[in-house]
């Protein structure tokens, strides 16, 4: 019996298997508004058997956008577009979550395929059309290329948490099944956690407990408005090579779980250009998911170069994580879950597909060549 394809209950939500679409910015929104692209992109994964689709880092504030093409959830005007994505994915029998994000001092980048540089924020309005104000825990830029952020006052931190809470209410109005708090990759949540980015002398800086305060208040505040039957995830950079360690992540995960976070999504890095001390390889971040699961007592999601069905199966079967998230491999092959079910010998893999696909495929997932006696599966060999 495949563990990867065993269902899991997270509060009131049942996932048919452990395969999750990792949140991936598509840089396709216009003025924050999602469109047909997002419906098509997220729909294709839902139509091919994943357990949960996670929408890209969707921004709670225009100043928190990574690029001018980020998706927005900072105003009620964005809810109908998001609702359309949710309804489409639901119509395919698949739950969908949204990752809420704010890029903090690292906002305002050009699109990746336009050079990965930094926007000239003095002459570029934010995606809501206003002046672009970078914010962070301290007035320290991400790198020489970035502007110095405004250090949030205690009152502004309170307002920032309210901003995330308002976004969570909109996520509920749009019908999302899961919220993930983006506390990783060098963005605002991670900036508060990091001794590298956070040099505050008040209750939000200094000791580990103080640096965790923003993340914990945020989790508590969002949990309070997110229905008790819907799961809450948090993505961490479990290590960043710039002072944040796995021991810190274990302590944070324990505290997040105590505040009602159901899944710790275990990524790494992003705090500094050369901060990462990890060499990417297959499953390179999975040991962090395993450590947090074992030592913090939190359920975890492993992510990072998980590409092979047997690799994914082993991660779940050996108790390293409760879920696996796939990013680039799913871009490469949106039907990965269906193919994985076939390779792992899961009974009736076609049941993962809508009948419009399943009816026409034979047991190898190819067109129903069995219907034509004497036709070989491979045209070159026939
Ligand atoms: C195009 C692209 C966009 C991404 N956007 C996000 C994002 O919005 N939020 C996030 O937490 N990670 C983001 N990531 C990171 C992925 O979620 C994932 O953690 C990373 O790609 C490693 O997994 P993989 O090896 O399966 O791709 C992005 C990755 C890619 C390739």
TrEMBL record:
<keyword id="KW-0521">NADP</keyword>
<dbReference type="InterPro" id="IPR044152">
    <property type="entry name" value="YqjM-like"/>
</dbReference>
<keyword id="KW-0288">FMN</keyword>
<dbReference type="InterPro" id="IPR013785">
    <property type="entry name" value="Aldolase_TIM"/>
</dbReference>
<protein>
    <submittedName>
        <fullName>NADH:flavin oxidoreductase/NADH oxidase</fullName>
    </submittedName>
</protein>
<feature type="domain" description="NADH:flavin oxidoreductase/NADH oxidase N-terminal">
    <location>
        <begin position="3"/>
        <end position="344"/>
    </location>
</feature>
<dbReference type="Pfam" id="PF00724">
    <property type="entry name" value="Oxidored_FMN"/>
</dbReference>
<dbReference type="InterPro" id="IPR001155">
    <property type="entry name" value="OxRdtase_FMN_N"/>
</dbReference>
<keyword id="KW-0560">Oxidoreductase</keyword>
<keyword id="KW-0285">Flavoprotein</keyword>
């Amino acid at each position: 019996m495949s563990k990867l394809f065993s269902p899991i209950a997270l509060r009131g939500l049942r996932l048919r298997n452990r395969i999750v679409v990792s949140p991936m910015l598509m840089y396709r929104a216009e003025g924050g508004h999602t469109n047909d692209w997002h419906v098509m992109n997220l729909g294709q994964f839902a139509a091919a058997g994943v357990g949960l689709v996670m929408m890209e880092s969707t921004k709670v504030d225009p100043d928190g956008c990574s690029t001018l093409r980020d998706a927005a959830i900072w105003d009620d005007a964005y809810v109908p577009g998001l609702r359309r994505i949710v309804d489409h994915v639901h119509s395919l029998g698949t739950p969908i979550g949204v990752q809420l994000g704010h890029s903090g001092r690292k906002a305002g980048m050009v699109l990746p395929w336009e050079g990965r540089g930094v926007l000239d924020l003095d002459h570029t309005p934010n995606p809501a059309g206003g002046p672009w104000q970078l914010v962070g825990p301290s007035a320290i830029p991400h790198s020489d290329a970035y502007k110095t952020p405004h250090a949030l006052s205690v009152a502004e931190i309170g307002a920032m948490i309210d901003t995330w809470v308002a976004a969570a209410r909109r996520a509920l109005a749009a019908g999302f099944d899961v919220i993930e708090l983006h506390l990783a990759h060098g963005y605002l949540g991670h900036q508060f956690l990091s001794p590298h980015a956070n040099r505050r002398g008040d209750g939000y800086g200094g000791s580990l407990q103080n640096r965790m305060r923003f993340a914990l208040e945020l989790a508590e505040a969002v949990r309070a408005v997110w229905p008790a039957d819907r799961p809450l995830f948090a993505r961490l950079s479990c290590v960043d090579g710039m002072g944040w360690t796995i021991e810190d992540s274990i302590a944070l995960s324990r505290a997040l779980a105590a505040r009602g976070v159901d899944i710790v999504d275990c990524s790494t890095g992003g705090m500094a250009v050369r901060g990462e001390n990890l060499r990417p390889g297959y499953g390179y971040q999975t040991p962090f998911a395993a450590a947090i699961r074992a030592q913090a007592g939190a359920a975890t999601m492993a992510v990072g170069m998980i590409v092979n069905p047997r690799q994914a199966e082993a991660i779940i079967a050996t108790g390293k994580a409760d879920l696996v998230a796939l990013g680039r491999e799913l871009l490469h092959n949106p039907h990965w879950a269906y193919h994985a079910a076939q390779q792992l010998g899961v009974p009736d893999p076609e049941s993962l597909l809508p009948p419009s696909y399943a009816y026409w495929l034979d047991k190898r997932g190819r067109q129903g060549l069995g219907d034509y006696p004497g036709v070989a599966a491979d045209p070159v060999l026939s």
